[in-house]
Structure to design on (726 residues):
């Protein structure tokens, strides 16, 4: 019925089409290291390790940094109790549900589980809606449970789900946590958990210590809701015994907030939805001025946000499914199904690292800034050399976010508080405190960040057509271009974006970036002298062989060091922006070299290390597809190596961008290297970016939006997808 490009079948179709319990579960398109479940921002980021999926009844979801999260789903089928998800220690008499299939797309993760005479589809949706700032910033993620009978049965079904203090960053400590309950508009049931005695803008192990965890639900057309807060064992046992939640309410250590839905007889599918979230009244501290999430301009409080989330769900889900299909189709046509598997797993990881904000005091929606945390490395705020590898996905899906991410950086630099004549590395040592570095002390990457900021500005202008933005800050961009004129060709000992490899003097990759950035700046500002300088740098590096070996078989890691080499991913920017800073022969040379230096599991970052970076591998693959080069074998080599890393079964961390490509002492080939869930996965979109900017159309049309407002929206959606993908 559906084409292979649309990987997560709609949950109601699954519920009615499958009739037999499978002996071995299927994983579509692959079994990833970790499934994204609720991934909306750096503090609402829940994942399921792939190796736990087959035994999903006992699985324990995790925060991106590895902390366990309590999030359970149980069901009663004709009086028999089953754990469907997240119950590692079930109550007496509770049987495990059996996983039939697991699927993911760009926005959905779906598990089909059978229990007795019932089939359950657990559909986790984290909307991606970069053009709708309210939807994108709303800190809530959805779980829809669809229940139906098997083989003509119509069992009586009750569904249960709970969460606990782990969602508020509390793990058994003696923290005074207050709980709340509200029955709001549209019969929306809302539980909250708020820790006390914690400081605003504080973290413990990357989990926010201010804010409120939220769990909410609404009754379906034929379900009855009950709720309770209390000790986990007591509350779950009550559901197992009665199929609903009754008894005293009280929150202490080890308590859960829980809902149950009585669906009655379920021959055909019946659905219940939950929304889980983490709400911060103040999201980011920008230079001492708190900023709120954009959604607060539309709805004033948690209760209104929960109501809004459920009212918006049909449109958010339709938009998400349109996006899923568009990304999968474009990715497959760009570089095949393995490439599709990579980029679809990357999308939530990227947008789930952003906070779309406005000033908290005014809620001025014309003053939008996006903040990103350097997840899993050092927690810096709006690191310029993190925005750079993210940028290909933004170029394809949401070019305005390039500017929105740079805006906090540029405004800080324009204030004059940064005392150097080169671009700052980041605007805060640790998220969410974007307090700058007025003392001039920050990670020093002058050539890297000057090149990045000029290239990002050029990329934004090309993608958006906005020529005014750089002009507003022309003196800054001119300052950084002048720095590269003086210091770009022979950079002093310093770090590049790959700071884990250490500083190095006369790094060829930095000189390449300086050359391309100067040419881009010259073209953007119509100042040919800068383009001339950039091309002169390129000639020195390539034609004069200062940056290659004598036989010009490859670019070196350091200038005039023929034995060294590196993955020269910065060349991709020359190709993407069609700058022709370097001749086609330079791309051909470097592309031809990579297969000769490939180790067991891929091409290392450079001759110093035994690990590779998945984002830069895709940038190198993009360079291989430059006009006049078009080396599909090398493109596919890089794609296949990243895909093999994803599917080798050796990893459980959310999609790491760094893995060992050979075994060396304690370093094991195919195993991830430190980094988890980083937004630089946006670099995987490099190949799609070559097709041009803003090529992914997002959003339902007005007719589709209006049609989703009545009760029959799911049926119409099914019919529409059946026509579209049959």
């Amino acid at each position: 019925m559906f084409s292979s490009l649309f990987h997560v079948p709609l949950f109601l179709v699954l519920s009615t089409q499958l009739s037999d319990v499978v002996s071995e579960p299927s994983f579509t398109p692959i079994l990833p290291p970790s499934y994204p479940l609720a991934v909306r921002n750096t503090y609402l980021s829940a994942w399921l390790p792939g190796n736990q999926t087959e035994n999903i009844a006992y699985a324990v979801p995790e925060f991106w940094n590895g902390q366990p999260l309590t999030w359970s789903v149980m069901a009663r089928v004709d009086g028999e109790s089953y754990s469907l998800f997240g119950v590692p220690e079930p109550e007496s008499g509770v049987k495990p549900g059996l996983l039939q299939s697991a699927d993911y797309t760009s926005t959905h993760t779906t598990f089909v589980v059978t229990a007795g005479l019932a089939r359950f589809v657990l559909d986790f949706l984290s909307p991606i809606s970069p053009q709708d700032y309210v939807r994108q910033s709303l800190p809530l993620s959805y779980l829809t449970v669809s229940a139906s009978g098997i083989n003509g049965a119509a069992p009586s079904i009750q569904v249960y789900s709970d969460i606990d203090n782990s969602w508020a960053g509390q793990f058994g400590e003696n923290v005074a946590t207050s709980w709340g309950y509200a029955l709001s508009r549209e019969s929306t049931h809302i539980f909250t958990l708020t820790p006390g005695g914690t400081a605003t803008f504080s973290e413990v192990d990357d989990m926010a210590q201010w804010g409120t965890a939220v769990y909410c639900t609404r009754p379906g057309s034929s379900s009855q809701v009950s709720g309770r807060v209390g000790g986990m064992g007591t509350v779950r046992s009550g559901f197992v015994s009665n199929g609903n939640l009754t008894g005293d309410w009280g929150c202490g250590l080890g308590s859960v907030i829980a809902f149950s839905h009585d669906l009655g007889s379920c021959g055909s599918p019946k659905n219940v939805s939950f929304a889980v979230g983490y709400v911060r009244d103040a999201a980011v501290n920008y230079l001492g001025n708190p900023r709120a999430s954009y959604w607060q301009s539309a709805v004033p409080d948690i209760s209104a946000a929960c109501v809004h989330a459920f009212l918006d769900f049909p449109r958010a889900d339709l938009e998400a499914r349109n996006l899923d299909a568009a990304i999968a189709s474009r990715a497959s046509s760009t570089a095949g199904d393995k490439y599709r598997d990579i980029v679809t797993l990357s999308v939530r990881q990227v947008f789930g690292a952003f906070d779309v904000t406005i000033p908290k005091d005014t809620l001025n929606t014309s003053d939008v800034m996006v903040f990103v945390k350097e997840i899993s490395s050092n927690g810096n705020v709006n690191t310029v050399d993190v925005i750079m590898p993210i940028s290909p996905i933004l170029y394809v899906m949401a070019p305005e976010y390039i500017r929105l991410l740079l805006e906090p950086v540029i405004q800080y630099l324009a204030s004059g508080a940064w005392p150097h004549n080169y671009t700052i590395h980041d605007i805060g040592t640790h998220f969410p405190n974007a307090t700058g570095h007025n003392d001039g002390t920050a990670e020093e990457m002058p050539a890297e960040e000057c090149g990045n900021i000029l290239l990002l500005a050029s990329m934004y202008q090309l993608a958006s057509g906005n020529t005014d933005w750089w002009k507003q800050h022309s003196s800054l961009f001119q300052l950084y271009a002048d720095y590269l004129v003086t210091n770009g060709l022979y950079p002093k000992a310093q770090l590049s974006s790959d700071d884990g490899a250490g500083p190095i003097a006369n790094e060829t990759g930095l000189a390449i970036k300086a050359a391309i950035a100067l040419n881009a700046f010259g073209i953007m500002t119509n100042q040919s002298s800068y383009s001339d300088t950039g091309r002169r740098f390129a000639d020195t590096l390539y034609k004069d062989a200062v940056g290659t070996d004598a036989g010009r078989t490859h670019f070196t890691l350091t200038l005039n060091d023929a034995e060294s080499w590196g993955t020269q991913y910065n060349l991709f920017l020359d190709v993407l922006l069609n700058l022709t800073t370097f001749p086609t022969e330079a791309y051909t040379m470097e592309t031809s070299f990579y297969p000769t230096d490939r180790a067991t599991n891929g091409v290392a970052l450079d001759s110093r290390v035994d690990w590779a970076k998945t984002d830069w591998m895709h940038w190198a693959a993009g360079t291989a597809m430059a006009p006049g080069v078009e080396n599909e074998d090398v493109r596919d080599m890089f794609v296949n190596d990243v895909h093999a890393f994803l599917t080798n079964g050796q990893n459980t961390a959310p999609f790491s961008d760094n893995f060992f490509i050979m075994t060396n002492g304690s370093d094991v080939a195919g195993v991830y290297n430190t980094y988890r869930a980083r937004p630089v996965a946006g670099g995987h979109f490099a190949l799609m970016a070559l097709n041009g900017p803003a090529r992914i159309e997002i959003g339902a049309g007005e007719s589709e939006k209006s049609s989703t407002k009545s009760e029959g929206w799911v049926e119409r959606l099914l019919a529409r997808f059946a026509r579209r993908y049959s």
User: Anything to note?
Assistant: Residues 1-20, 700-726 have pLDDT under 50 and may be disordered.
